[in-house]
Amino acid sequence: MAEELTPVLRVSTREVERRIDDGASLVRRMPQLLDAMRAGELEAYGARRVLAVVDPLDDEAARSVDALLADKLVDAPETAWQPGNLAQRVRRLVERVDPGGQVERSRRARVERKLELAPGEHVMSSLEVSLPAEVAAACYSRVDGMARSLRRGGDQRTLDQLRADVTADLLLGRDPGVTPLEAAAMVSLHIPVDAALAISDEGCELDGYGPIPAPIAREIMTNERSIWRAVLCDPGTGEPVDLGRRRRRPSAVIRELVRVRDRECVMPWCHRPARHCDHDHEHPWATTDDGGGGGSTSVANGGPRCRRHHRLKDQPGWNTRYDPVHGNTRVTTPHGATYTAHRHPVLTPTRTAPTRDTSARCAARHDSPTRRVLGRDAPVHRQAVVAAPARDTTDAERQNDDSPPF
């Protein structure tokens, strides 16, 4: 059949075989996803992203993921159907349906890491390296940090050119002309404290990637070069409220707390990690003509936006609103379409937040299973996230910090 369809569809035989396999998998293993395609809610690329995630599962497990996904998408915003968002939801469902298999697949994939050279057009080639997600993220962060330092120093090359040239210099043993900061190669790993202690195997997430198996998270966490840092969370909301810190500069703390809290660009369909985004004042910082002030430089007024969407925010016809406190994003396009999204909390929130004046509960939080661990990796640096009672953790000086966004 594939050979017969090759000249009809005018694609390669391998592509025809992929389409046949995808169609058979949808009919046999993901019937509700197929119904969504028939209803016009999903096109082939998005379906292929989902099928790639569930491909290792047996038919019964795949149908379980299909049913759970259909339930979650009933009341989901339109942005949930975007292929990247959809694939991330499916990864979480696969983790729930087949946690043991996910661990084995992850370990096997790490063993199969590799480097490939792909010749391209116009005397160019691509160098692709397959690495564990946390190591790849740290490598990119380091190269990106060095490229941005060169750019700030007056280098006229674009960031893409700088990242490519810095990578080549490092691999060839040449001096790229800049020394990166330690923080330029850090990645966050979120782990519930009970998962860190091997009591549970749920809730682990890698910054900029998504859910990962708890045994893999523990292996990353216990790397001998780990460095831990506390992030205090309100268990009633699951949101970070302060950072344990050795540094004194308030603006760095505010920016880092915003990155930890939001983890990605706040645009509903953008998954650029917050560490590679601009720190945006939701209400612009300014002094008005009548003597009043604009938005403060604070955690409650900050959010990460990648450079593209930071600039898009002020384009005619675009109306983007982000509520940093509640994590709600609302975007209206020039043609009038409106999209919404909601931030997932760092912790799974409890039903009721503890009161501020209950000392017994404050003491009990040290034994609470709702605590989480957050790691930052270069290649594997770590931080601890500990749930704390709801409280105001930024003083007036920090709330009114006027230093500009980076």
From TrEMBL:
The lineage of its organism: Bacteria, Bacillati, Actinomycetota, Actinomycetes, Pseudonocardiales. Residues 3-262 form the DUF222 domain. It comes from Prauserella sediminis. Residues 278-336, 387-406 are annotated as: Disordered. It comes from the Bacteria. Residues 392-406 have a biased composition (Basic and acidic residues). Pfam families: DUF222. InterPro entries: DUF222, HNH_nuc. This is DUF222 domain-containing protein.
